């Protein structure tokens, strides 16, 4: 089938999926797979949620599309639902996390004009368009740079990656050079508009910063009057045990972007939320951004239903309970397997990082290996798990698996999936 596969050469063979229900999906031969990665960390409510499906059906019958210049009932209801759960309450709607980040940077640059530079981090992913791939720290940016599809004005800073501290420190006991480096940059750069970050890093290793990290970041941002732009595309919507990951920290972003779990992935929606101060700026200044599908009624339809389903299922408390189970189970696996260097996470958002040598933390693959087309150990583990009925993903340039099951997953279902992973990791040992 001549359809492009994302982020890969076009010599791949895809599994044909015919249905999905709960935490599982099924191929054309009837084989069942546990969805350990919630597809692309987006199917937070699992598959086949009737309340969300009915909301979409009713909206299709009532008003399938209206231009973004008009108001409609579902837009009002979606805004009200979001204001209940999001730390910020003024919104621009698009159709993906990439677009949400694109809008965030344009808003930041317009609001802070003539300041335009954005500081990002090396272990980050913010999207695939010219602006958002330029913010991305992982190797996918290298391919975009090669063909001149990136923008100027992006500066990269180190990550709060305690397992592989860029300054060779150990937590606790460090002085948080990773956070203080932001001030070093701001002392030596001019025209900086903002700092974009994933509160909990997603694709690039589920890096959960210590609370002190964001306390320092917040103080520096306030001192130098730069905007804090929190990318919650992956870490939002209950994934960490709070509605949004910033809620774990003493941190007040100026802009929050999100997508994925906002609709449970039943419809494509990107959300760029801002402070009232930023929104008020555009009452007198031209807002130079928009889409044909901004505020699309069908994309907004699931939002109120998703919020109500979270409440009905008491999912935030469930995620906190499953966090304890996942932490215990993964640390037991770490003790059993010499190839596991680190396990880390929060809520139902975890990773297993593999190493050749625990003492030296030597990785199996490097970014250079990825760029030169060498085999990925993560793809081999994923393939072996898939053959045994567990779908789990991890980036080809990394040494970690992403464990982000649907938030409705039960302990018994997770236990079965972990048993499969146990077996596949034994081969790597």
Describe the secondary-structure layout.
Blueprint lengths: L16 E5 L2 E4 L4 E4 L2 H4 L8 H13 L10 H13 L4 E5 L2 H16 L4 E5 L8 H6 L4 H7 L7 E4 L19 H12 L3 E6 L13 H14 L2 E5 L23 E4 L11 E5 L1 H9 L12 H4 L1 H11 L2 H22 L3 E7 L2 E6 L12 H5 L5 H11 L2 E2 L8 E4 L7 H18 L1
Helix pairs in contact: 2-11, 3-11, 7-8, 12-15
Task: Tell me about this structure.
The protein has helices at 38-41, 50-62, 73-85, 97-112, 130-135, 140-146, 177-188, 211-224, 276-284, 297-300, 302-312, 315-336, 367-371, 377-387, 411-428; strands spanning 17-21, 24-27, 32-35, 90-94, 117-121, 154-157, 192-197, 227-231, 255-258, 270-274, 340-346, 349-354, 390-391, 400-403. By secondary structure, it is an alpha/beta fold. The chain folds into two domains: 17-48 and 314-428, Aspartate Aminotransferase, domain 1, CATH 3.90.1150; 50-311, Aspartate Aminotransferase, domain 2, CATH 3.40.640. The strands form three sheets. It has a seven-stranded mixed sheet with strand order 4-10-9-8-7-5-6, with helices on both faces. Strands 1-2-3-13 form a four-stranded mixed sheet. A three-stranded antiparallel sheet has the order 11-12-14, covered by helices on one side. Helix 8 links the parallel strand 7 (192-197) and strand 8. Helix 2 (50-62) runs antiparallel to helix 11 (302-312), helix 7 (177-188) runs parallel beside helix 8 (211-224) and helix 12 packs parallel to helix 15 (411-428).
